[in-house]
Amino acid sequence: MGHHYVPPKRASLKRQQSGFTLLELMVVAAILSLLVALVAPNLLGRSDDAKVAVAKTQLRNIVSALDLYRLDNGHYPSTAQGLQALVSRPSSYPEARNWKQGGYLPSLPKDPWQSEYLYISPGAQGAYDLLTLGSDGREGGEGDAADISSHAL
């Protein structure tokens, strides 16, 4: 009975496995772009929320340092002395008689948008005003561009 084994044609297999069709690639690209469109706004929104949370935490730390400064020296730093008085001993009036060696903060943090925190003493809302102007660097604003004040913590 002469059944001979005939091996499969390798050329036809190679042709079938050579790659994706243009249609398959377009479908994959469409799915990926849809996922990016859905996920990217959520990630960007989370980033803004995280920066606001960091700003609030930094404000709380500065408030604690200001309170310790006042306990030691009987007053808050003046506007002219600024927050730098928490890092290095101020030489101007009002004198910091019991300034703690080593300071009250290791360094002055910038807000998450790389701007200085604003400090005014005496402030319009109490002993001092301490705030960041948010992502836009201007007064007012909405969302992550809104001002964040230590009075609102």
Automatic annotation (TrEMBL):
One of its GO terms (cellular component) is plasma membrane. The chain crosses the membrane at residues 20-40. The keyword Lipoprotein does not apply. Keywords: Cell inner membrane, Cell membrane, Membrane, Methylation, Transmembrane, Transmembrane helix. It is found in: Cell inner membrane. GO terms for biological process: protein secretion by the type II secretion system. Its main location: membrane. It is a single-pass membrane protein. PROSITE patterns: PROKAR_NTER_METHYL. Residues 42-150 form the Type II secretion system protein GspG C-terminal domain. The keyword Oxidoreductase does not apply. Belongs to the GSP G family. This is Type II secretion system core protein G.
